[in-house]
Amino acid sequence: MTSQTPGPARGPFPGLLIAFEGGDGAGKSTQTAALAAALESRGLTVLRTREPGGTPIGEKLRSLVLEHGHGEIDGRTEALIFAASRAAHAEQVLRPALERGDVVLTDRYIDSSVAYQGAGRHLGTDRVRGINEWATAGLWPDLTVLLDVDPADGRRRRTAGDAAEDRLESEADDFHARIRGAFLELAAARPGQYLVLDAHLPVDDLAAQILDRVDALLSLRQGSSA
Question: What's the burial of 24, exposed, middle or buried (CB within 10 Å: 0-12/13-18/19+)?
């Protein structure tokens, strides 16, 4: 995988950046919404966002790279499109929210590129990580929640009800297996910065475990600012 172990060094921001990662069909959107609702009920300001996307240019790039019908997109071009979207996201959305003191929840972040393009497309995880570290000027999450799902189960989840798969979702199972392995290796290399959960657990159980971990982070943040 990689010998690099980047941490959450991202500047003296009062806010908190939490990334949700995992294979397609892992339930990231469901858990992001649940965490946002729980934190907002306590009076915290929460920003939910997603990648690729999160900005006007990012949403255009999202449609270009995920929708079918745009012709062939080679792996290197794909990686750079994601990095370009992420650069705008970090500069225009994430940093301003963190500077305001918001809790920022992003559905996918740098690890998705490392896994999907670095491992899935065989571009090299270190190379893809380096591109994205430069694109975000070293903006790393305080916590990454990894929802681990078996690729076959993920496909069954995302195609339930005859839902159509996007360009990456429709890749073969071996592609998604490489992605799953890459996510797990990333988490194993930095266990203190990850919360790895079995995506097959009941939704409420997952939500409770995520909230407990975020509560611990918030307590640490409050203690260090006291």
Answer: buried
Q: What CATH number does residue 100 fall under?
A: 3.40.50.300
Name 197's bridge partners: 147
Which residues 6+ apart lie within 8 Å of 142 measured at CB? 8, 10, 16, 17, 18, 193, 217
Phi, psi of 16 (to 5 degrees): -130, 135
Q: Where are the alpha helices (DSSP H) in 50-190?
A: 56-66, 75-89, 95-100, 110-113, 125-135, 151-158, 173-189
pTM above 0.85, yes or no: yes
Backbone torsion region of residue 22, taken as left when φ is above 0, otherwise alpha when ψ lies between -120 and 50, otherwise beta = left
117-157: per-residue pLDDT in tens? 999 999 999 999 999 999 999 999 999 999 999 887 767 76
Tell me if 176 sits within 8 A of 154, measured CB to CB.
Answer: yes
Q: Cα separations (Å) of 121 from 106, 117, 133, 171?
A: 23, 5, 19, 11
Domain housing 105: 20-225
Q: What is the mean pLDDT of residues 94-119?
A: 97
CA 225 from chain center: how many Å? 27
Rounded to a whole number, what is the distance in angstroms from the first to the last CA of the chain? Answer: 39
Average pLDDT over the chain, rounded to whole? 89
The count of domains in the chain is: 1
Q: How far is Cα 21 from Cα 7, in angstroms, rounded to an integer?
A: 16
State residue 9's pLDDT score.
Answer: 45
